[in-house]
Amino acid sequence: RGRRPVSAATRRCCRALGLLLALLPALAHAEWYRREEAIMGTRIYVELWADAAPAGESAVAAVIQSMHDVDEMMSTYKPASQLSRVNDRAAQEPVKVDRELFEVIRNALEFSRLTHGAFDVTYASVGYLYDFRAHQRPTEAQIEKALPGINWRNVRLDPVALTVKFDHAGMRIDLGGIAKGYAVDRAIGLLQARGIAHAVVTAGGDSRIIGDRFGRPWIVGIRHPDDPKRVITRIPLVDTAMSTSGDYERYFDENGVRYHHIIDPKTGHSASKVRSATILAPTAMQTDGLSKTAFVLGAEEALKIIEAIPGVDAIFVTPQGKVLYTKGLQPGD
Q: Which residues lie below 8 Å from residue 211, measured CB to CB, with a gap of 6+?
C-alpha cells in the first residue's frame, strides 16, 4: 500500500507537539523553591521561582550561604568576626576592615546623620549591658558610666586605608539595626545576577521582594503589637523592601515597664514613643536603618524625616494604639 500524504498542517502540528514534549521536563520543574533557617539570631526565609530544580536549589543555597557570610563578618557574638575585632581594638588604634564592612558602617553613620542621631550604631556602648533572654538590665549607675560612649560622631573612618577608629574609650558599635537589611539586599543582588525575577528574602522583620507572584502582588501583613494573631493592615508589595520593628521582638517586662532592644541613644533606656514602626523603601538597608527612628523621635517627628526622603513610606503604631501613615500610604489613596 502507498502511504497517505501528510498535509503541511499536520506536519506543523506534529512539530509543535514534539516541541511541547521536549519542554515538558523543564516545565514540570518550574516552581517555587523555598527554605528557612535560623541565622544572624533570627529567622531567615527565601522563596523564589525558578525554571528548573538545579537552578532553584542552587539559588536558595546561595542566599543561605550569603547570610552566613554576613553573620561571620558582622556579628558581635562571634569573637573572631571583623566587627568584634573593631570593638576590641578601635579605641586604641585604627582597625583595618574589608571594604564590605567599611561600607556598611559608613552607611550606618549616614543614617545616624539623616535621623539626627535617633539611629546610632554606637548605642551598643550601653546596649551590650542588656540581656533580654536572661531578663537582665543595667543599673542606672552602669548606664551613666557607659552613656558617654554613645556618639556616632566619634567613629572615624579612613576611606583610603579602610580603617575604623573610635575617639572615645569604651565605645562599641552594633550593626544589628542595619546588617540584616544589608544581608537581604546582598542576597537579592545574588538572585538578580542569576536571572531570578520573582523572589522574597526575609531576615527577621526585614524583607525585600523582586517581581510579583505572576500577576498578583505579594501580600505582607503588619501584626498587632499585643497580639501576634491579629493584623493591623495588609500591604500589597511588588519590587520593594519593607522592615517592621516592634517593642515585642526582644524584650521583657518588669514592674509594669517594658525593656526592649531598641535603645534611645540619649538615655540608654528602651525607646518607647511608638509600639511598632514599618518602613517601605527601595532597599532593605534603608528600611532597616529607618525603622528604629520613630521609637526615639516619636511618630510625628519621624514622619517629617521620612516624608522628605523620596520613595520612602511608613506606618507607625503609637502607644495609644493609633495607626499613622505617611501621605503615600494613607487609606483611600
A: 49, 197, 198, 199, 238, 239
**Separation of alpha carbons 209 and 217, rounded Å:** 10
| Per-residue pLDDT tens digits for 206-241 | 999 999 988 899 998 898 888 888 998 888 999 999
- pTM for the complete prediction? 0.87
Residue 319 reports pLDDT greater than 80: yes
Distance CA 105, CA 330 (A): 33
- State yes or no: pLDDT of 54 exceeds 70: yes
DSSP state of 74: H
Q: Which is nearest to 176 in space by CA: 152, 206, 138?
A: 206
Ramachandran area for residue 312 (φ above 0: left; ψ -120 to 50: alpha; else beta): beta
Answer for the pair 281, 240: CB distance below 8 angstroms, yes or no.
yes
Q: Are 107 and 289 in contact (CB under 8 A)?
A: yes
